Amino acid sequence: MTHRAATLRTHQESSAAWLFFKRWLANPLSMASITPSAPSLSRLMARQIRRDPDEVVVEFGGGTGAVTRAILDAGVPPSRLYSVERDPELATWLRRHFPQVNVLEGDVADICRMLPEEVRGKVGTVLVCLPMILIPAEQQRAIVDAIFDIMPPGRAFYAYTYSARSPIRRKALGLRGRRVGFTIANIPPASVWRFTRE
To answer: How far apart, in Å, are the Cα atoms of 4 and each of 13, 36, 96, 114, 131?
Structure first.
């Protein structure tokens, strides 16, 4: 990376951190953290991706693009990535900084309606970058059902959490879940969990 490119990325990261903090102030429960995911957590999430060449990846909670960038750096073509963001200001940021990524603005529980028909059922991996542990059980159920509606049978989705326990109510939702990674370099330290249907 050239000095100019490195300077530009540093400026973008600073601007992203400030925007993220402002949106956290506006709605703390929807963000769960005052800073975007650290590179260590973003890379840990991106390493979980499994997709066939004709499949896409879906990211829930694009924020300012920390995990989005890691997904692209892991080799997923931008045209094969769909990032869902409910906050209009953050969705605008994502479109400006990741113009080739498919940014969908809305509630993740509506993902089946938002995705183009030709990719429904062809989602290799869903990465959930939302504070699922703070979401009530019935809303968790709606989100989980929506995830499995867009993936082929037998696939997994991944979610990170700052808690020591699972971010999803596994038993109530009929899920198998296990921790697949941990990073202390994130603020706060975070774990990544893998979930499948029983």
So the answer is: 14, 23, 19, 37, 35
